[in-house]
Design a protein that fits this description.
Blueprint lengths: L23 E11 L2 E7 L4 E5 L6 H13 L18 E10 L2 E10 L5 E4 L2 E2 L12 E4 L5 H4 L2 H13 L3 H27 L4 H41 L5 E6 L7 H7 L1 H7 L10 E6 L2 E2 H4 L2 H23 L4 E5 L7 H9 L9 E5 L2 H8 L6 E5 L2
Parallel strand pairs: 3-13, 3-14, 8-12, 12-13
Antiparallel strand pairs: 1-2, 1-4, 4-5, 5-6, 6-7, 9-10, 10-11
Helix pairs in contact: 4-5, 5-9, 10-11
Length: about 375
């Protein structure tokens, strides 16, 4: 119809190859009182589905509802209550999926003043976290630009978000490290306010942070060594090898262990009243033609960089989860030239990625891009 959870601590991904993946497919989506959508139903038969319409008509909200079914929350609005349509008392999202040749119905609903309810085949989850991972999904949107323009914490969250989905020990160590960091910072502030100092008390936290930082640093380093070649391959595929890109992983632990760093920077930390060194300062440097893409990359180059970054993230998760996840592309073609649009669409073929949902304002742009793929697609015009 053309026109129309595991624990992997070692990251060895030398290639993006064809995997034996189980099928996952969203067959029907029903929305009631979700954001600006009062009542809508969409039936999906094609692997590529495009929502076309003017700005503000609700294209991104449709994609966000699919994200909501996977992660039980909105990608764009952290307040669940604000996802209820103005003047209404509830919202409901229902998705009918085919997962491993089984029909699965997922419901997500919220009434004002009550807790969100997630159901699978009519049965309510006792713990919402039990649902996460059933529907592997990735979203690429203009909001991803924060990875380039914002501070290092945003890029650390990106790393932690990928590793944490595949390594429970890593996530636990990270949570424990951050708790210990907060306690050490509170103690440094206490010393300053009360004009006192107790080295023995501080050493308790130093020891804990040193022990916790070792496995975190080791796994971040191993992950980036596996991730960067995949990212480069994705970028070159989109840009047709016209530009060189790179990512550099920076960490204080590249130079020394945590114990030495804390000892060397003790006087500085006492003055600042917080811990100035450690893995909580790790960062990624994004480069294009050996210069920072934040300063020297065009909007199209930055967007290409982010798309490649998310696709590489996806390749990593796909290999671990052994499924072709759903991909949401929210208005990603706006700043790309037609060649990059076509190259991006070519990546979404058969074994590369599973079902795709695209939002855009221009139908002709999408049709031109999709003309280069053999995959079936369907266009939903919302105007």
């Amino acid at each position: 119809m053309k026109n129309n959870q595991c624990n992997k601590s070692k990251f060895i991904l030398p290639f993006i190859g064809k995997l034996y993946l189980y099928l996952m497919f969203l067959k029907r989506l029903s929305l009631n009182n979700y954001k600006n959508i009062e009542a809508s139903r969409f039936d999906f038969e094609a692997p590529i589905n495009c929502f076309i319409g003017n700005n503000g008509i609700g294209k991104s909200n449709i994609l966000d509802s699919i994200y909501h079914l996977a992660f039980t929350k909105s990608y764009f609005n952290p307040s669940s209550q604000q996802n209820i349509q103005f003047g209404k008392d509830f919202f409901m999202i229902e998705g009918q999926f085919k997962i491993e040749n089984k029909d699965e119905k997922i419901n997500c609903s919220l009434k004002k003043g009550q807790k969100k309810v997630i159901k699978k085949n009519g049965k309510r989850y006792r713990r919402i976290t039990n649902h996460i991972g059933l529907i592997p999904l990735a979203i690429i949107s203009p909001a991803d630009r924060n990875l380039i323009i914002e501070g290092s914490s945003t890029r650390r969250k990106f790393i932690d978000g990928v590793i944490g989905q595949t390594d429970k020990d890593y996530l636990k160590n990270l949570v424990d490290y951050n708790k210990t960091l907060a306690q050490r910072n509170a103690l440094l502030k206490f010393f300053a306010i009360n004009r006192t100092f107790n080295r023995d008390n501080l050493e308790i936290y130093n020891y804990q942070m040193n022990e916790l930082s070792k496995p975190i640093y080791k796994k971040r380093k191993a992950f980036m060594e596996a991730f960067i070649p995949i990212f480069k391959q994705r970028y070159y595929s989109i840009s047709a090898n016209t530009e060189s890109v790179d990512i550099h992983y920076y960490s204080d632990l590249n130079k020394s262990d945590m114990n030495k760093l804390l000892s060397q920077n003790l006087e500085r930390d006492k003055v600042l009243q917080y811990t100035s060194v450690g893995i909580h300062k790790d960062d990624l440097d994004f480069e294009i033609t050996q210069v920072p893409i934040k300063k020297f990359g065009s909007q199209g180059q930055q967007k290409t960089f982010l798309i490649a970054l998310k696709l590489a993230q996806f390749d990593f998760l796909k290999k671990v989860a052994e499924v072709n996840p759903i991909v949401l592309l929210d208005d990603i073609f706006d700043k790309l030239d037609q060649n990059r649009v076509g190259q991006t669409i070519k990546l979404f073929k058969n074994e590369s990625i599973g079902q795709i949902f695209i939002s855009d304002t221009h139908e002709d742009r999408i049709k031109a891009a999709l003309s280069s793929t053999t995959s079936n697609y369907k266009i939903f015009n919302l105007n």
